[in-house]
Amino acid sequence: xxxxxxxxxxxxxxxxxxxxxxxxxxxxxxxxxxxxxxxxxxxxxxxxxxxxxxxxxxxxxxxxxxxxxxxxxxxxxxxxxxxxxxxxxxxxxxxxxxxxxxxxxxxxxxxxxxxxxxxxxxxxxxxxxxxxxxxxxxxxxxxxxxxxxxxxxxxxxxxxxxxxxxxxxxxxxxxxxxxxxxxxxxxxxxxxxxxxxxxxxxxxxxxxxxxxxxxxxxxxxxxxxxxxxxxxxxxxxxxxxxxxxxxxxxxxxxxxxxxxxxxxxxxxxxxxxxxxxxxxxxxxxxxxxxxxxxxxxxxxxxxxxxxxxxxxxxxxxxxxxxxxxxxxxxxxxxxxxxxxxxxxxxxxxxxxxxxxxxxxxxxxxxxxxxxxxxxxxxxxxxxxxxxxxxxxxxxxxxxxxxxxxxxxxxxxxxxxxxxxxxxxxxxxxxxxxxxxxxxxxxxxxxxxxxxxxxxxxxxxxxxxxxxxxxxxxxxxxxxxxxxxxxxxxxxxxxxxxxxxxxxxxxxxxxxxxxxxxxxxxxxxxxxxxxx
Amino acid sequence: xxxxxxxxxxxxxxxxxxxxxxxxxxxxxxxxxxxxxxxxxxxxxxxxxxxxxxxxxxxxxxxxxxxxxxxxxxxxxxxxxxxxxxxxxxxxxxxxxxxxxxxxxxxxxxxx
Lengths: 531, 112
Prior knowledge:
The structure holds two protein chains of two kinds. Chain A is mainly α.
């Protein structure tokens, strides 16, 4: 019982800190640029930390270590793909987007296309990607709290999901981008510290010898050397091998299309700061993903993985307990509570970032530009953003109740696939293809998005498998769990088709020169707000 | 309608776009970003394909329990850090000075 008191106290501390930060930040927020972009006044280092905070979600902390603990080397592809993906963001997206947009992902497309259709499309895909991503985080929160209170009850998990949902609505409505960014920064520091601590404790058990750790993981897993080799999960036949490629593609191309990451580039004063923040993010994220080796293989070596939940989401907290002294020991209880609180902070922060992104897009793209055609006051726009946060929170709460059995990292990989298919083709074409036009952009987004979502719906993730979202029914016509290999090329294909089947647009063409100048030099880019 | 800008802004954008300096900036940017992107994608996909179809090689133990697959995976980290560092150096040295100059020129002209 005292363990649970300790855990509850730590959880409350995390919640109290984040609420405090949010209220403090809300006092310094006025107007849309503050609300959407934190006044563009964050430094490269601060934003680098915040990007890391936004990016290293429950998927990274809970999901990947679970996948490695259960699947060995095949789980490591997540760590690699999630990191390599940052090169796309660094070289092709971050600086150009900072220079050419304002608040949302759609701004960059709307710069040279007809505003209303492209904003509507981009807002739809922003909300779709964010909801997939939110599901993963909320499932993580439910599982975590059930573990800590030692009750595996559906009611409790759902209650937790509802509480997380309410907290996220609070962060976003009260704190805006400034509050959300500071929550990310606090969380990034907590997460890195917690991960370093567990990594050091794990490695200490093996004399800081990676080979020994791997050996122990291989033998304890019962798989022997196969555990350390590629193919344990994806090596069975041609279909699973193609699924592996599909997953790898979604991971590496998805990052540059994640709306909640893209709008982070607007929080800094210049494109130079955007670059600097990505470099910081790559350093922190890279260090973190290296440590997932210790977390994942450590869990395989030190835990009885057959007692883990089937999705492996609890490997990290259980591992912390084990290296702290084991179940029943004081050290074990303290570490379990500590790491769970870190995971909880991680979830809260990411959830806040996602909700803010979707709410901003609904308010700025759909309400202000599509419905009101720009004739709104800043006050009205921010109010709509706050209302939208409620709506998105509610949808995410309801959907997460159905996704409880799925691995978090796996769910996030689906969000990556949707982002890579719906957003990346349009963004890349817009920057690098002069002929690209409104219909091309709209087709690229809806086409890529719909292909990805439909394929997921007909995949074994939703039906036809034991651990599917709807067990007991089977309409799985598509054999792959991750749709990337089909849906990403489909996004590019639709964008190309839409463009060549419609007449060139004089305006899209003329403004291409301007977009290039603005994106590459920063001439005319949005400036920081001076208070 | 796309985003509105003034005729003056439009004129200045066009002038900057036509300048030899801007064309040089564009060339320098694409000259790094495109080959680097192709390179790391090929390198990454090589890891993915070999994990699928070159298992004999990937499973070879190099020392202790460390096999080629793990080393290859760790090299992906190394190459990511390396390319990021090279890009930052290239941008600081060859892109920022030109971009900064063009941006100042634009702002002076618009400010007039």
